[in-house]
Design goal:
Elements (H helix, E strand, L loop, with lengths): L2 E5 L3 H13 L3 E4 L13 E5 L8 H6 L11 H4 L2 H10 L7 E4 L5 H8 L2 E6 L9 E5 L14 E5 L5 E9 L5 E3 L3 E6 L2 E7 L7 H15 L3 E10 L2 E8 L9 H4 L4 H9 L13 E7 L13 E5 L9 E8 L3 H11 L7 H12 L1
Parallel strand pairs: 1-2, 1-3
Antiparallel strand pairs: 4-7, 5-6, 5-7, 8-9, 8-10, 8-12, 10-11, 11-14, 12-13, 14-16, 15-16
Helix pairs in contact: 1-8, 9-10
Enzyme class: ligase
Pathway: Purine metabolism; IMP biosynthesis via de novo pathway; 5-amino-1-(5-phospho-D-ribosyl)imidazole-4-carboxylate from 5-amino-1-(5-phospho-D-ribosyl)imidazole (N5-CAIR route): step 1/2
Subunit structure: Homodimer.
Amino acid sequence: MKLVYVLGNGQLGRMLRQAGEQLGVMVYPIEPNMDPKKLLISQCVMTSEIEKWPKTALTNMLSKHHAFINHKIYPILTDRLTQKQLLNQLGIRTTTWQLLSSPAQWKQIFSSFGNIVIVKYRTGGYNGKGQWRICSDIKHILPNICYGRSIVEKIVHFSNEISLIGARGYDGRTVFYPLTYNFHQNGILRVSAVLPDHHIQQKKAEKMLSMIMHELNYIGVMAMECFIVSEDLLINELAPRVHNSGHWTQNAASISQFELHLRAILKLPLPAPVIHMPAVMLNLIGIHANMKWLSDPHVCLHWYDKKVYDGRKVGHLNVVDVNKIAISKALHTLIPLLPSEYMRGITWAQEKLD
């Protein structure tokens, strides 16, 4: 079986490597500045855990290489301008948006979008970085470098934030996980909750993501983040990779999102994963490991072994059981073991489980 190289050497690459071990597949996360001559390109399949990388000898070569799965697609989906243009061309609803080219646009923007808007860099800018909440009297705080490099979006009043994670194989077959509810604080995903019961929006979401993956001839796992607005779905973002909101699959599904991605890019069987139980995933952000988290048998720790600093994702907890009450009780045991800012997310998850 071919080697798998993963461009990027963060936690997603680490978890892809762990999933590869179960399959007997050698998965090597690599840095973008690595010397291409040191890689066995002719014997590999290459994928990516990152959406924006520097221009190096390696990335320049990969941008044109057939071994790099989806290499023609990354430039489209990693730029919010071309991503939204693609979705609109397909007739798929997104948040209302436009390109932000110059300060002269502000009068028209506030007139059309309302008094408060969201500005996002076209590339990068995840986990609350490279994004600004702007109103008419503080627009001067926006760095000048943003003009021409950003889009502006209308504020969306939604009932829920959800994500759908699916995969597509070389033969066009698509498979999906259940819709996942997500809770964000300060632009960072804090908690995800999945209830295997059929969601009223499941088929609609699957149709949308299938259309996107088929249009792009995409291979592997893709994540689609949406807002639910009056029973309709508006796409917020697409991620051409395994996704934070799918980490629960490691402990609650027969096939994790990481194994599913490897299966797809390596032409292995791609059955629909079986979901064994409900799950809640808590991101561990900027805190040190506490082995007391493991006192409850429903709690599974995934630690990334990264240097801890404020705002950095350093691990996650999956809380799983066939009984939702047991999950809720396990979450309650974590409250005194986590910083106070986790209380809102845990309460939100417990309400979802009711």
